[in-house]
Amino acid sequence: MITLTVNGKPVEVDDSDPSMPLLWVLRDTLDLVGTKYGCGVGQCGACTVHINNVPMRSCSMPLSAAAGQQITTIEGLAKADGTLAAVQKAWVALDVAQCGYCQSGQIMSATALLRANPKPSDEDINTAMYGNLCRCGTYIRIKAAIHAAADDIAKGGVA
Amino acid sequence: MNAVSFSADAYFAEVMREVEAIPTTRRTTLSRRSILKIGVAGGAGLVLAFQLSGKAFAASAPVKGEFAPNAFLRVAPSGRILIYSKGPEIGQGIKTAFPLIIAEELDAAWSDVDIEQAPINPAVFGSQSAGGSRSIPNSWNQLRQAGATARAMLVSAAAREWRVPASEITTQDSQVIHQASGRKLGYGALAVKASALPVPDGKTLKLKTRDQYRLFGKHFGGADNAEIVTGKPLFGIDLKVPGMVYATFTKCPAVGGKVASANLDYLKSLPGVKDAFVVEGTGVVSEVMPGVAILADSTWASFRAKSALQVKWDETNASKDSWSESTKKARELASKVGEQEITKSGDFDAAYKGAVKKVEAFYSYPFVSHATMEPQNCLAHFKGDSVEIWAGTQTPERIITVTAKMLGLPENQVTVHQMRAGGGFGRRLVNDYAAEAAAISKQAGGIPVKLTWTREDDMMHDFYRPGGFHSFKAGVDAAGKLVALSDHFITFSSDGKGPVAGGNIPKEEFPFPLIENGLLTQTMMPLKTPCGAWRAPRSSTCAFAFQSFLNEVATAAGRDHVEFLLELMGEPRWLVPDNQGSLNTGRAAGVIKLAAEKAGWGRTLPKGHGLGVAFYFSHAGHFAETAEVSVDAQNKVTVHKVIVVGDIGPIINMSSAENQAQGAVIDGISTMNLELSIEKGRIGEGNFDEYPLMRITGTPQVETHFIQSDFTPTGLGEPALPPVAPAVANAVFAATGQRIRSMPFFKNLANQAQA
After folding, report:
1. Averaged over B71-99, what is the pLDDT?
2. What is the mean pLDDT of the segment spanning B201-221?
3. Do A136 and B237 touch (CB under 8 A)?
4. What is the pTM of this model?
5. Distance from A75 to chain B by nearest Cα, in Å?
6. Residue B56 pLDDT more than 70?
7. Do B665 and A137 touch (CB under 8 A)?
8. Residue partners of B582: CB distance under 8 A and separation at least 6
9. pLDDT of res. B47
10. What is the pLDDT along chain A (159 residues), one digit of tens a residue?
11. DSSP letter (8 states) at residue B296
């Protein structure tokens, strides 16, 4: 067994296959299914999580490399009392999602961007969000929601 | 065993007939008795599904005190209103739109409404499929009646309570109001009394007119938004039930190949692998084709074992399709007239001969994939005399019929749970993945099996949008009027009798019904690759060819494209008299004029920029779109802005409508730049590195306008898409003088720059 820190809590997981990507540990072992499988090769970003606050593709990170790291998933963004983070609020307010499948990954990438750069330009957004595909084509609202979340953060909201 | 079939054409013909049929409102669907039937569809799955989702999949019987006039809604004494959305949510927003229609007629405050997915039970709810942009028009009357029935009963209950005539009572925001006496009562307070009243005859109900709408046309967030942004389980792929195993299924990369041998013993020795076996299948591509199932204790263990799978395929009867060969053959056929005549009007030959200007061109587009973000997957549990299935599908009823037949079960022993689908675009009209999961569960001895396709499985085993070719001829007279148009459409057939699904052109397809001397013919080339309905089937490809070629003709005639299109429309009329599902030239002219106005048609553009326009009619929607592009010296195209103008009648949810229009534009630009290669019967692309969907950097500005006419509202999942590609192609021509006649657009243009 090895210990992972997921959303602030230590969890013990079976490491009999240390090559298992973090994505499947989260989904199949820990029942944290908000992190999605889209391509398995780091092309689509649906599996994006934060490793020590940096957005990473969990489909391409083996369990062995995740040990001892601080892992945050979409389930760990809102406060314990259910209060949504600024990015989640903006995603709801602007009704970003169509099918919604890629949106956990989009939100994780957007959150990481805003934590590093609270007032991103369109160009900054393009660079930070380039790795996240949306087949429904919600990019326009994704961009608008990131700007809205940035405004919220400027007024004291939490990324 | 069924007859072997590599094509889903017959399946699609049936599905489309079903979804495109205008339903007669069935009285039984609104009877109170029908509520009791819902429970039957529930079964034990409710308990299992609760473990992860916490949300009901199957309606329980109404709680005492609840007012449940029909299967679609319940009003609790607390005042909360529960509305069931009967259709599949695939990203088109129907889980919000259906309840809005009911709430509008009920005069409910939207904040009082809770939404749940209805159980799958067509005997109660009528059609529960989502396809052909038909969800809204097919359910419009049924859902309005469901809401209006409840409202009428609440009004009657208040009239009795207050001893005033019902005609003096109005409703608003979940309240009944007696203006004269200033009395008000919330719907919840009337729930018990309304329950005791008889359900009124649907014919006595007065439905709202457009000036009475309070909800329609405003912005409403999606029903599942809170769950989506917090990562709650919603999709089929998110499910887990006790005792479940994880499965992969590997089929021959060339459709129709059978398993000759496979290293099953080795696979079974791998860590985490519980079983591996050959599934013979039904040989029907919309059901189960032969392949190897691997069952494991995690998705990863099944995927890893799949990568170690070695199969010797027997490809005796498998597809040998070749796109490059088809392209060569189509070019040879181009100069001829097609073997079959689809439609003709006037005398094309004479009119063309007499034309002052003649234009000829050859257009082509390749096969493309649906590539839904959620790969196909399904959880199935075969229990001997019944089966339970959880799936993100567009046609849940079809899972019942196909699975029942395949497993030899009565249809009432198949329970289907509709999951939110991570994209549809027509892919999930076919439930091959569900049939596979059910077959694997049975063969594994009746354990619950979650089958997950890899991205590569998904890309290589799709029901593709077929590629196609158009050889056009047109003639204009001295006044610059289009007097002759012909198209030799070169398409594919799986049986030699009719075109593949999505590869047909009906005689009504715009613009032929408007052509004075027209000739539309077709030649079919043999194909085994499965084809299907890809968002706006045939229209999404025909629009590119027809509307780009019309621009060529307008240009050759020295005409302005907008004015040329308006002339083509002529006097306002329905092209099929009294059929509101047909093209109305007045509505068409309306959207064309507004698009031109909003785009500043005719204005001076910055250097290197071009403005293009296209109109298309599909799925009962009239859409005109303009695109402004710029092209640099390396022929790199930037799409700056697209203006979408649509007339689909009244808009139910403006937020969803604008989102669909923006998505259609992005899908249009994305797909005009994609292609699949097919050689030796195999799809050459496997993942997003080889099939590069558009990323955020390619996004143009999108402006959307809806002409909200009084016609019955029609769907928006599809009709905003077809005009995108020709508008961009026409804009590139306006900017550069270079005509785009084949997809993928930008790659072909860049190649031209290098040449």
Report:
1. 97
2. 95
3. no
4. 0.95
5. 6
6. no
7. yes
8. B508, B574, B575, B576
9. 28
10. 999 999 999 999 999 999 999 999 999 999 999 999 999 999 999 999 999 999 999 999 999 999 999 999 999 999 999 999 999 999 999 999 999 999 999 999 999 999 999 999 999 999 999 999 999 999 999 999 999 999 999 999 888
11. E
Instruction: Give me the phi and psi of B210, to 5 degrees please.
Output: -60, -35
Lowest mean pLDDT among A66-70, B152-156, B244-248: A66-70
CA distance B662 to chain A (A): 7
Question: Which of A33, A126, A138 lies closest to B238 in CB terms?
Answer: A33
Q: Measured between beta carbons, which residues in chain A are less than 8 angstroms from residue B697?
A: 126, 130
Query: Is residue B459 situated within a structural domain?
Result: no
Model confidence at B60: pLDDT above 80: no
- What phi and psi values does residue B407 have, to the nearest 5 degrees? -95, 0
Cβ–Cβ of A97/B225 closer than 8 Å? yes
The Cα of B497 is separated from the nearest Cα of chain A by a number of Å equal to 34
Contact B49, B417 (CB under 8 A): yes
Q: Provide the shortest C-alpha distance from residue B701 to chain A (in Å).
A: 8
Is some CB atom of chain B closer than 8 A to the CB atom of A129? yes
Contacts 24+ apart (CB under 8 A), B1-6: B1/B282, B1/B283, B2/B282, B2/B283, B2/B284, B2/B287, B3/B283, B3/B284, B4/B256, B4/B283, B4/B284, B4/B317, B5/B283, B5/B284, B5/B285, B5/B286, B6/B255, B6/B256, B6/B285, B6/B319, B6/B494, B6/B528, B6/B530
CATH number at residue B133: 3.30.365.10
Q: Which of B228, B298, B663 sits opposite A28 (nearest CB)?
A: B298
Contact between A95 and B219 using a beta-carbon 8 Å cutoff? yes
Fold for the domain defined by A2-76: Ubiquitin-like (UB roll) (3.10.20)
Return the structure tokens found at A104.
């956990």
Name chain B contacts of A27, Cβ cutoff 8 Å. 238, 299
Full domain range(s) for residue B716: 323-369+464-754
CATH topology of domain A86-154: DNA polymerase; domain 1 (1.10.150)
Give the separation between CA B299 and CA B237, rounded to whole angstroms: 10
Residue A48 is given by DSSP the state E
Residue pairs between chains A and B whose CB atoms are closer than 8 Å:
187
Number of domains in chain B: 3
Mutate to test the interface with B, among A98, A102, A106, A141 (most CBs of B within 10 A): A98
On the question of pLDDT at B267 being above 80, the answer is yes
Per-residue pLDDT at B55 exceeds 90: no
User: Which two three-digit tokens encode residue B102?
Assistant: 């009911």
